[in-house]
Design brief:
The complex is a heterodimer of chains A (112) and B (119). By secondary structure, chain A is mainly β. Chain A is 0% helix and 45% strand. Chain A is built from no helices and nine strands. With 119 residues, chain B is mainly beta. Chain B is globular. The mean pLDDT of chain B is 90. Classes of the chains: A mainly beta (112), B mainly beta (119). Chains A and B meet through strand 4 of A and strand 4, strand 5, strand 9 and strand 10 of B.
Chain lengths: 112, 119
Amino acid sequence: DAKTTQPTSMDCAEGRAANLPCNHSTISGNEYVYWYRQIHSQGPQYIIHGLKNNETNEMASLIITEDRKSSTLILPHATLRDTAVYYCIVSSASGGSYIPTFGRGTSLIVHP
Amino acid sequence: GAVVSQHPSWVICKSGTSVKIECRSLDFQATTMFWYRQFPKQSLMLMATSNEGSKATYEQGVEKDKFLINHASLTLSTLTVTSAHPEDSSFYICSARDQGGRAAYNEQFFGPGTRLTVL
């Protein structure tokens, strides 16, 4: 599975959009990009995933560049409860064979 | 979404004792569950894959005789930390995949974690 690079930490004002980048320059054609987040002392929570098209759900939007070497998770209106560590994972496995492998992630702090 | 529970949520034990942690999928069946460990300020590390009705598959460096995994039913996996020592103090998290495929990509759901402190 391709490796990912994320900034160690970011901060964002409440109510503003939080844009979390992830570099995955060695991604291959069949690898998906997954995003999870972990609020302090809780289990990880799935956010969104995509292959090459941009994706949007009730939690966030995922923008994948055309060359697929990077992506951005967008929380359109960040709240204090969005403070968490966000993990970007790239994996060729999907469905029954996919097992998330977590890196260091980005610690997002949303401030008032 | 589907719910995964863990019990207990935290436990404190003496060195040398064994501790059992339960992971349950509450509203779906999971033939495969996963156990992770997370030390303070570090990321989650996969310990083992728990398979219903068969032996668990352990990641390299994880002692299978120390971390006993039993997956006796489609909704329950247990992790027993045997002869626990202070260095085993950690946050243990399980996850399960909804085999029923309510999500097209078989989304994986995580439990809330169990904090183990060994004195």
